[in-house]
């Protein structure tokens, strides 16, 4: 995989925009749109099936639709193209632009205190960038392709 393509898929923090649920061309959004289309007008059926099939799970269908609609409606172009639509306070994007580097693992200040991440995200960010340093960006990118983004 070309470095430029990897750079387009991964945010400067190292997380995969390509696999984010909010990414406009991502699998999660695409499958959500597809599932919405396949389900068609399932709402009235779910209501009937709750009684007819005696299965209370169909009563949860409206909540499922709400989540599915949300996944289908997200449309972020990725961190390389626009401000993160989920985490608007992210400190990495403006910082890497100011520094003129592609990824945090390339930065002499890593691990810094400029990210504004919470504890979990901070730990994930450190872990990811240490993996990249150890294995190289190409191998790390291949790893992201084989795994779900949300582990
Ligand atoms: S910039 Fe943020 S919201 Fe957009 S795809 Fe990347 S992680 Fe997801
Ligand atoms: S200072 Fe921190 S946030 Fe900014 S590029 Fe370096 S490691 Fe990333």
Question: What can you see in these coordinates?
Answer:
The protein has 151 residues and is mainly α. The protein is built from 7 helices and no strands. It has helices at 3-9, 27-39, 43-52, 61-73, 92-99, 119-135, 137-146. The two termini are 24 Å apart. The model has no long low-confidence stretch (mean pLDDT 97). The site of one iron/sulfur cluster has 13 residues, from helix 5.
Bound molecule types: iron/sulfur cluster
What coarse outline follows from CA principal-axis ratios? elongated
Sequence stretches where pLDDT stays below 50 over 5 or more residues: none
Largest sheet: none
How many strands appear in the DSSP assignment?
0
Number of helices: 7
How would you classify the helix and strand content by structural class?
mainly alpha
Cα-atom radius of gyration: 19 Å
Helix residue percentage: 40-55%
Tell me what portion of residues adopts beta-strand conformation: under 5%
What is the terminal-to-terminal distance? 24 Å
Averaged pLDDT: 97
Outline the secondary-structure elements.
Blueprint: H1 3-9, H2 27-39, H3 43-52, H4 61-73, H5 92-99, H6 119-135, H7 137-146
Bound molecules: iron/sulfur cluster (2 copies).
Summarize it.
This protein has 151 residues and is an all-alpha fold. The protein has 7 helices and no strands.
Tag the structure with descriptive keywords.
151 residues, 0% strand, mainly alpha, binds iron/sulfur cluster
